[in-house]
Structure formats: C-alpha cells, structure tokens
C-alpha cells in the first residue's frame, strides 16, 4: 500500500501541532515536527540545539541543511511507518525540493499539502495565549509572534505555489472548533 505522506502547512499558530496529534492517531502516522525536534535538541543542550537557539528565540529560520538532516534521520529511523505527517517542514523551497528528492527516491511522494488558513490577528492572539503555558520564548512577545508571521509570509507561504504546481495544495479553514477543523482535514485526506 502506498504511504500516506502529508504536509500539514500553515503559519505559526494555525494549529498544525494540535491537529497533527489527531491525525497521527486516526491514520497511524509518524509525526515529524522540526520545531519539536529542534526544541528537544535545545533541551538536551546539544551543539545543534545551542546553535539554533538564538534564531528560534528571535523567530528566524534555522539553516536548511540542519532541518533537512534531522528529517532525513527521522525518516530513516521510521522506515516502516504507514506514512508521515510533516509539521513545520518544509519552510523554504530548498527544503521542499530536498523532501521531494528523499520521498521520490523511495517512490513515496507527498500525497497532499493541507494548508490551514487563519487570519493574522487570530494567529497573534493564539500565539500569545499559548505563550502563557508553553514556556516558549518565541511565544512571549507580540513583536516576536508578528515577526514569525512575517517570516512565514516571505519564506514559507510561497510553497503554496510549489505544491499547487504538483496538484497537491488544499486550503483548509483553520478557524472553528478543534473537532470541526479535524473533520475538514480528514475529509480533504479522503
Ligand atoms: P515551530 O515549532 O514549527 O513554530 O518552529 C519553531 C522555530 O524553530 C521556528 O521559528 C524556527 O526558528 C525553527 N524551525 C522549525 N522548523 C523549521 C524549518 N523547517 N526550517 C527552519 N527553521 C525551523
């Protein structure tokens, strides 16, 4: 059976992490979040984590080769997975190309890119709310929250065209109850 490899796309605060948790359960997928992987490196105080810290705290992107390497390692470690849900990756065209190369080499391409659409003011509200409990430095200040949205618009949002060209882009309304949004995603996966 072909693998269910999905990119869960959207700006910071769109609900990618939350919705990933529902989808991995429903479809038995492995969740690959580069943000989570980087935060684990940071917590373990590895060289990689310490090198990424300042960029992450400031809402800037970590170098492509670092996140691509982390994804490659995780995919190799979970070769038997029925599929992956990519969350927060890819964030640049170089990352999207590297992901396609890795997956195409195994004839297991991305089947859909689901893009959670949420208005900017709602995103800022959600990020600052999360900041009260997440302990994430990048969720604390409104300026950093807005900076991440700017970086998303500039570097990451153009990937919609990349996946549109492959016929894989699907926009999903990311506003509403968690259950409604999950239902929209499940319907889009088909
Ligand atoms: P996230 O948890 O996805 O919001 O990511 C938190 C931070 O980790 C981002 O603001 C970036 O600094 C870094 N990061 C996560 N994923 C990537 C990625 N694919 N490319 C570059 N930087 C990333």
Number of strands: 5
Question: Numbering strands along the chain, what is their spatial order in the largest sheet?
Answer: 2-3-1-4-5
Radius of gyration: 16 Å
Structural class: alpha/beta
* Helix content estimate: 55-70%
Order of helices and strands: EHEHHHEHEHHHEH
Ends distance: 15 Å
What general outline do the C-alpha atoms trace? globular
> What ions, cofactors and ligands are bound?
adenosine monophosphate
Number of helices: 9
> What does the main sheet amount to?
5 strands, parallel
Mean pLDDT: 97
Low-pLDDT runs of 5+ residues are none
Strand content: 5-15%
In summary, what is this structure?
By secondary structure, this protein is of the alpha/beta class.
Commentary on this structure:
This protein has nine helices and five strands, in the order E-H-E-H-H-H-E-H-E-H-H-H-E-H. The protein is globular. Helix 2 packs across helix 3 and helix 4 packs parallel to helix 5. It is α/β, with parallel strands linked by helices. Adenosine monophosphate binds next to helix 2 and helix 3.
Write the layout of secondary structure elements.
Layout: E1 5-9, H1 16-27, E2 30-33, H2 34-43, H3 47-57, H4 64-77, E3 84-87, H5 93-105, E4 110-117, H6 120-134, H7 142-156, H8 159-164, E5 169-173, H9 178-189
Parallel strand pairs: 1-3, 1-4, 2-3, 4-5
Helix pairs in contact: 1-9, 2-3, 4-5, 6-7
Which properties best describe this structure?
190 residues, alpha/beta, five-stranded parallel beta sheet, globular, binds adenosine monophosphate
